[in-house]
Amino acid sequence: ELKALLFDVDGTLADTERDGHRPAFNAAFREFGLDWEWDVELYGQLLEVTGGKERMKFYVERFRPDYRKPADFDDLVAELHKAKTRHYTELLAQGGIPLRPGVKRLLEEARAAGLILAVATTTTPENVTALLKHSLAADGADWFAVIAAGDIVPAKKPAPDIYLWALQQLGLAPEQCLAFEDSENGIRAARGAGLKTVVTVNEYTRDHDFTGALAVLSDLGEPGAPYRRIDAADEA
Ligand code: XBP
Ligand code: MG
Question: Domain of life here (predicted)?
Fold first, then answer.
């Protein structure tokens, strides 16, 4: 019997990457006097690595062989990430990023039906609570029984750890839950934890490999703007 819905955040609840996280990283780089600038296309490549700190390190390794790392590089990355979180949560506080189509309706209907809601994401906890507060409802964070986020587990998606941690906190088996994801890293994490997974794609993820998905959809749909079933369309 279905007991709980588990949601990824970035790309699934809201399209946060291109116009949210990306400009927040760039603002942090400028603040620290770095000539790093992530455009929309490059950012798509950087999304291969989940987690903001991990993504900055990946950028330096892969794209900036010219950059001379200071001895305290890890500390610099941590400071940059704090600044990035500040810029990002400021943007969210201005109501800067709406939820994706159908998300609020599904959350409301699931609650009304007595389903438990949870979050499993690699993003920083403050980012999740800010999005839920400003884009869902003032008490939006309270709608969720468990918010599994960020560095709470060391191995980020595509590792299943964050989903396993959330399931443990919920005291539920994977068969009792359904996960919602938007990316290949995300579905690998959810499937790795044994979860059935519905995928809603976005601009950055529509060409990803969603092997094992229960369904791949354009979005969750709204009255008058139904979702499209992308996996079925591919096979037809
Ligand atoms: C989301 C991410 C996150 C955000 C940035 O992946 O990769 O890293 O881009 O978050 P998923 P932080 O949707 O698969 O969880 O900067 O707070 O780490
Ligand atoms: Mg995601």
Answer: Bacteria
pTM of the predicted model as reported, rounded to 2 decimal places: 0.96
- Cα of 177 vs centre of ligand 2, distance in Å, is 18
Distance 66 CA to ligand 2 centre (A): 31
Question: Within 6 Å (CB) of ligand 1, which residues are found?
Answer: 8-11, 17, 21, 50-52, 84, 121-124, 127, 157, 183, 185-186
Q: Write the pLDDT tens digit of every residue in 182-202.
A: 999 999 999 999 999 999 999
Which of 10, 161, 182, 219 is catalytic? The answer is 10
Q: What residue spans of the chain are helical by DSSP H? A: 22-31, 40-46, 52-63, 73-93, 103-112, 125-131, 161-170, 184-192, 230-235
Give me the number of domains the chain comprises.
2
Domain of residue 154 covers 4-15+98-235
CATH number, position 59:
1.10.150.240
Q: Does the annotation mark 8 as catalytic?
A: yes
Task: Please identify, among 65, 93, 121, the residue that sits at the C-terminal boundary of a domain.
Answer: 93
pLDDT digits (tens, 9 = 90+) for 84-138: 999 999 999 999 899 999 999 999 999 999 999 999 999 999 999 999 999 999 9
Name, in order, each residue with C-beta under 8 angstroms of 112's C-beta and a sequence gap of 6 or more: none
Is 10 known to be catalytic? Answer: yes
